[in-house]
Amino acid sequence: MGRLKVALLLFKCASGSMHVNMETVIVEEINGEIIITNLVSKSFPIIRYRLGDKIIFDNVSFCPCGRESFIIKEVSGRVGKKIYGFKQEYPNWTTNYIFRNLAINKKITLNYQIEQREKGKIILNIEQGLENKQREIFLQEVRKYYGGDVEVEIRTGIETFAQPAVGKERIWG
């Protein structure tokens, strides 16, 4: 998140919180979706624009850095996108939890991109290499969320944030 069309939306402070840049944008949350109004663009006004990202505001915490701007606790996925298993559908944010759990609980941090081109199968593109033990830990985490309903193909050594040659980037099928 932090689209160029709408100036800088969020920034991470030294304490690790994601603050809303209240000088350049108004951020609203409606049904978990982020809605923005750009306060600085004069040539192309953006008013109550749905970015398509799911967020969770932190309405309780005060940041130790001392800033009083709104804090976004989590960006939890895209609105309306799904992972299609063989038998059922899953919200795409389940993949965020898989990778968050790996980072927090197993100290495995990966740069990744997920593609789904057919029902029941996902392709996981990872920039780093994976040791066999890390691969098994990852697959265990996937099974916690999807059981045997989704098959995973893991590809390593793939540049995950390369822009497509033509057209818009679309990660989910």
**What is the helix content?**
10-25%
Biggest sheet, open or closed, and with what strands and sense? Answer: 6 strands, antiparallel
Number of E-type strands: 11
- SSE string, helix = H, strand = E? EEEEEEEEHEEHE
Shape: globular
How is this structure best described in words?
The protein has 173 residues and is of the alpha+beta class. The protein has 2 domains: 4-77, no CATH class; 82-156, 2-Layer Sandwich (GMP Synthetase, Chain A, domain 3). Helix content is 17%, strand content 35%. It contains 2 helices and 11 strands. The protein has helices spanning 93-106, 132-146; strands at residues 10-12, 18-20, 25-30, 33-38, 49-58, 71-78, 82-84, 89-91, 112-118, 121-126, 151-156. A 6-stranded antiparallel sheet has the order 1-2-6-5-4-3, covered by helices on one side. Helix 1 crosses helix 2 (132-146). The protein starts with 9 loop residues before the first strand and ends in a 17-residue tail after the last strand. Mean pLDDT is 83; it is low at 1-6 and 163-173.
Main attributes of the structure:
173 residues; alpha+beta; 2 domains; six-stranded antiparallel beta sheet; three-stranded mixed beta sheet; disordered C terminus
Helices and strands, with pairings:
Blueprint: E1 10-12, E2 18-20, E3 25-30, E4 33-38, E5 49-58, E6 71-78, E7 82-84, E8 89-91, H1 93-106, E9 112-118, E10 121-126, H2 132-146, E11 151-156
Parallel strand pairs: 10-11
Antiparallel strand pairs: 1-2, 2-6, 3-4, 4-5, 5-6, 7-8, 9-10
Helix pairs in contact: 1-2
What is the gist of this entry?
The protein is of the alpha+beta class. It contains two helices and eleven strands, in the order E-E-E-E-E-E-E-E-H-E-E-H-E. The protein is 17% helix and 35% strand.
